[in-house]
Amino acid sequence: MAAYDLAATFQAFLDAVNSKNWDQVEERISPTVTATYGEKQESRDELISRFIVSAKEGDQLSADTWTVNQATQSVATRLITSIKNTLEAEGTPSRVWDLVLVFFEEGRISRFYQVASQVSRDPQFGPWAPEITSEPSKNPLSISQIDEEYRKYLYSFNDGTMPAAVLQGWAKEVSVLGNKLPREAVPNLFSKVIVPVIAGLKCEVEEMVIDVRKQQIAVRLAIEGVPENKNLQKDGEGKKVKVYEHAMYGFEEGKIAWVWAAQAYNSTPPSGWEASSVP
Question: What domain of life is recorded for the organism (predicted)?
Answer without folding.
Answer: Eukaryota
